[in-house]
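S.,

Sequence below, as promised.
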Amino acid sequence: MSGTVALDADLLQRLQSVSFPTIGHFLEDGFLDSGIRSLLENVHVVGRAVTVRVGGADAFATNQGLALVGPGDVLVIETGGDVRHAPVGAVTACAAQTAGAAGIVVDGVVTDIVELRDAGLPVFARGTSVLTAKRVADAGSAVNVPVVCGGVTVNPGDVVMADDNGVLVLTPAEAAAIVDKALASDLAEPEILARIRSGESIASVLPQG
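The prediction came back faster than expected:
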């Protein structure tokens, strides 16, 4: 295991229930670049970050990160801007899934897309490639350290929230501070939709300033 503190079970349950775009109504920071997208459909991931910094297309770094992954964790990989070499493929995803990972987030590309989709483990990346990482160690690689993924600093133990819309990373304290407000907004939405569908004027339903 990574050694970072497990996420509070009650917080996890509440985050599993919230619509992540609702959080976007209240916060501006923590949202990864929109180029990092889900490669599967209909996914909703909440988990604790286990981080990897891959230097020089170093395949060993990802393997070392996988050794730290436990149930419910999300492997978050920084590639240093490398969008050519894929650090994740069928074997990597299988190892993560077997360890109980909730998903993988890569600021770069992945490979074996058909196998990844068949496996069903949520994977978020900028795209795919047939060029893969190499079995060559690089001094710039590290595991369980702060990484930058999609323009956001991700620390080991942060909360990763990801779905078909994108990826959000917050500290546990930040997530706890916003989740109830977001849940309340979600509960109010069905009534708003019903009023709009009933023909009520937009000006009377939606805030106008």
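The helical segments are 9-17, 20-23, 59-66, 90-98, 113-119, 172-197, 202-205.

Coffee later?
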